[in-house]
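Following up on my earlier thread - several people asked me to post the actual chain instead of describing it. Fair enough. Here it is, all 300 residues.
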Amino acid sequence: MTALATEVREAAPAAAARRSLGSRIAEKLNGGLVRVFLVLVGLFWLVPTIGLLISSLRSPDDMSASGWWTVFTKPSRLTFDSYRKLLENGDITHSLLNTVLITVPATVLVVVIGSLAGYAFAWMEFPGRDWWFLGVVSLLVVPVQVALIPIAELFGKIGLFGTIFGVVLFHTGFGLPFAVFLLRNFFAEIPRELLEAARLDGAGELRLFARVVMPLGGPAIASLGIFQFLWVWNDMLVALVFTKSGTQPITVALQTQVRQFGNNIDVLAPGAFISMVIPLAVFFAFQRQFVSGVMAGAVK
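Reply from S.P.:
Thanks for posting it. Predicted structure:
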């Protein structure tokens, strides 16, 4: 035993010497230094948001005279007058309401229809199920730009062009392929025994979907809802094509303000910050469900 212990002690330094330089550096950095680095990276990515917030609280004269970072020398010059002017701008406030009227229905419809279709493709038997699913997945490769003109002509013929419902319908149609693909793959990982036990207890398909599948699929559904909300809220291309002056969302309204009144930065800065901070608030409010949905199935 003494000889064996001696050999082990002699082999330990040699093994440590054979370890790569990268592994030794990673071991030393694994701790507080890595956390500090990640915090610095996060703060760096927040610099544009912080700059936009400070700019929205400065007067037009101050913004034209110096950069937003100079506010730290004179913080008393910050004011909420720009937000007061924003609320008095009817075009901006109306466009913000239009954005909500477009984003919320488009998100809810995609989540509800995508969940039902995903469950059907995962656990219901019907003729041509796999071929139908393959057709839905193939729609993921269709660019939005290809469908803009044909759908605009179709909406013009049936009276939907320029309406909020037409924009919601467009976003719903293009959001469903990804929703069905994501939720079908997630629902397919649910243990079959759990569903069969619920059927033995007398649960029908709708009750099984509402009582078993939906609670288990909460993280994936939340992730889908966040993705869809962000896509629709920040969309500008579809809104430029399918909306008119009375139905424009905030993204188009801000672009119009820049084109018509290039010097009204006191309205553009708070409007842009509100347009950006609402999606950020939604993301941070549901970040736990988002992370759970992204990591679902990664660890068995």
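Residues 90-123 form the longest helix (34 residues). That should answer part of your original question.
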